[in-house]
Write a structure and sequence with these properties.
Layout lengths: L14 E3 L5 H13 L14 H10 L3 H10 L3 H12 L3 E2 L22 E2 L1 H9 L2 H14 L33 H12 L8 E2 H11 L25 E2 L9 E2 L7 H14 L2 H4 L3 E5 L14 E6 L1 H7 L7 E4 L4 E6 L4 H7 L3 E9 L4 E7 L1 H10 L5 H9 L5 H13 L9 E5 L11 E4 L4 E5 L1 H10 L51 E4 L3 H13 L5 E3 L4 E4 L4 H10 L13
Antiparallel strand pairs: 1-7, 2-3, 4-8, 5-6, 7-8, 9-10, 10-12, 11-12, 13-15, 14-15, 16-18, 17-18
Helix pairs in contact: 1-4, 2-3, 8-9, 15-17
Length: about 575
């Protein structure tokens, strides 16, 4: 087949639709959300609950999508991510359902929870960004439930054909994955950033590949009858399809009325959802027979599409800046890189697109670094950032990170957890136990689910919410390690004075007159494994008297640069 001859066009007066969502980046937001919660799907339609759909939309940063989820109980983009994760094998849940009784006409889904398949998730995460995008493309190409004739694209505007009679005729024999792959190959002939007429694409395919969609020789149906070429395709005067009539192959513009309509719907489907193309629609009300045609007037391909088709993608670039910002630049969302940086930093800005490049800025935070070191004691933050960036870190960042890593307070933060106290074992909620603190005290995830299960078993749990700075007293008679509301106060007359041992610790504060000296001494003390605290704002180092010997040794090492004298302040 020779190259297609396409006509360029102007988009003046047209409505241009560009997809600003990134399927790959949004997929990981979806996976992070469902992986951190126990989400029970809806019983009747097996969809995500309205609240979860709205919260995912909020995490995606799309207020309109969030409102749509609240209004209708779902958002099409969130549903796309939900379906994509299932087809990729990254999550698992029941898709068959069951009939509840002999009179049931529809299946229902009882206690159907979304489970992240951790092993498959880790495998997918370790793929290159290009490999991840190619996996997603394969799902879009081969998705068995998707047919552009009958299903509108997630961002599409065009009405579909009627699916009446689609189980017979030529429709069951059409190879849609091969058709989509063929059309993507033709789009690779286009110059990026150039608007082409959709009509010229239809005309070129009619001239050069008239059988790209429906084969020239149609296979007989299973009962031996050979279907007419366009028997599955009907036109009508309105969208209700009351007076639809089949399209005859010998009628004027039959190709444009069937294959032409498919091409329009294909462009606003897979290519638009994956940011391969931008499309432009006419603003004029449609006057012809339905489904509409010649409404998507123009399209342009993106450079990222051509590079993806050629399996070309530059590796992500990571830059650590002196202000503790970590800048990640990548043509494709760098999920593996982001998964290593996100636990250490806060997102400063949403992804900003340059010429084929997405730029994400994060900022390293001491509390996050310290928390991650508690979770992963063997983590070498400095080495990790050097490896990701491929260069040495700025000196001030290096000093701070070594201090955070070597001397950060060790603590663990538990969010959305609860404490379960019981003298007797409770095997029915053991799946929610994160840690056994003592024989009677357990740390549990999803405390609301634990309460529901215990109430279901008629165990009448007492639910108490403690305050941030003190425990809430428990009801009288409760057996607990926590304080009771009726705890008797000791008679002051009978009370005996209790011994009180107060420990005193003296800290030495060393204030430096210059930033350079402050930085040099911090680095030297960190290298000497000295335990100290640095106050950057006042250029002060605080250490115990026992560490002064280490400080004096460091001062001798730096004697060629600094003649040190200590002045005591009253």
């Amino acid at each position: 087949m020779k190259p297609l001859s396409l006509s360029t066009t102007s988009t003046e007066g047209l409505v241009i639709v560009t997809n600003d969502r990134d399927v790959l980046a949004d997929l990981f937001i979806y996976l992070d959300y469902v992986g951190s919660r126990e989400i029970k799907r809806m019983v009747r339609n097996n969809q995500l609950p309205k609240g979860d759909s709205a919260r995912i939309a909020r995490l995606l940063g799309d207020s309109e999508m969030e409102q749509a989820a609240k209004d209708t109980g779902g958002a099409v983009w969130v549903d796309l991510l939900d379906e994509l994760a299932l087809h990729l094998g990254l999550v698992n849940y029941d898709t068959a359902g069951e009939y509840r009784g002999h009179s049931s006409v529809e299946t229902s889904f009882q206690n159907n929870y979304v489970i992240v398949r951790q092993e498959e998730y880790e495998k997918f995460l370790k793929l290159s960004p290009l490999g991840q995008e190619q996996r997603i493309l394969q799902v879009f190409l081969h998705k068995a439930t998707h047919n552009e004739f009958y299903t509108s694209g997630v961002l599409g505007r065009l009405d579909p054909f009627s699916s009446w009679g689609s189980a017979t005729g030529v429709m069951p024999s059409l190879d849609f994955p091969a058709v989509r792959q063929f059309l993507l190959q033709q789009l690779q002939q286009c110059k990026p950033g150039t608007w082409y007429s959709t009509q010229s694409l239809v005309a070129a395919l009619k001239a050069e590949a008239p059988y790209f969609l429906i084969p020239q020789k149609i296979k007989a149906e299973r009962w031996g009858k050979t279907a007419e070429r366009y028997d599955n395709f009907y036109e009508g005067e309105d969208t209700w399809r009351h007076n639809d009539k089949p399209i005859a192959p010998d009628e004027p513009q039959a190709f444009e009325r069937v294959e032409g309509r498919y091409i329009e719907r294909f462009l606003e489907g897979l290519p638009l959802a994956l940011r391969f193309v931008d499309v432009a629609y006419t603003t004029q009300p449609y006057q012809g027979l339905h489904p509409s045609r010649d409404q998507l007037r123009a399209f342009q391909v993106q450079e990222r599409f051509l590079r993806l088709m050629r399996s070309e993608a530059r590796p992500p670039k990571v830059t650590v800046q002196p202000n503790f910002d970590v800048v990640v630049e990548s043509e494709i969302y760098p999920a593996h890189v982001m998964s290593q940086i996100k636990p250490l930093a806060e997102r400063v800005s949403a992804p900003a697109s340059g010429v084929g490049v997405s730029v994400i800025t994060l900022q390293l935070k001491k509390n996050l670094v310290a928390a991650e070191l508690v979770r992963k004691p063997d983590l070498d933050v400095v080495s990790l950032l050097k490896t990701l960036s491929g260069s040495d870190l700025p000196p001030n960042v290096l000093v701070e990170l070594e201090e955070w890593s070597g001397h950060a307070d060790r603590f663990t933060i538990y969010q959305d957890f609860g404490l379960l106290e019981s003298v007797e074992p409770l095997p029915q909620v053991e799946r929610y136990v994160e840690e056994h603190i003592s024989p009677t005290l357990r740390l549990v995830i999803l405390p609301e689910r634990v309460t529901e299960r215990l109430e279901h078993d008629a165990l009448a749990p007492i639910v108490v919410k403690h305050q941030l700075i003190q425990f809430t007293p428990l009801p009288p008679g409760a057996i607990s390690v926590f304080p009771k509301a009726d705890a008797p106060k000791e008679d002051a007359a009978k009370a005996q004075a209790a011994p009180l041992h107060i420990k005193r610790q003296t800290t030495i504060k060393l204030t430096f007159p210059s930033e350079a000296a402050f930085t040099d001494f911090r680095q030297a003390l960190a290298d000497a494994h000295c335990v100290f605290h640095a106050d950057v704002e006042t250029r002060a180092i605080l250490l115990a008297p026992a560490q002064m010997a280490v400080f004096e040794s460091v001062a001798q090492q730096l004697a060629s640069r600094y003649l040190v004298t200590l002045d005591d302040l009253s």
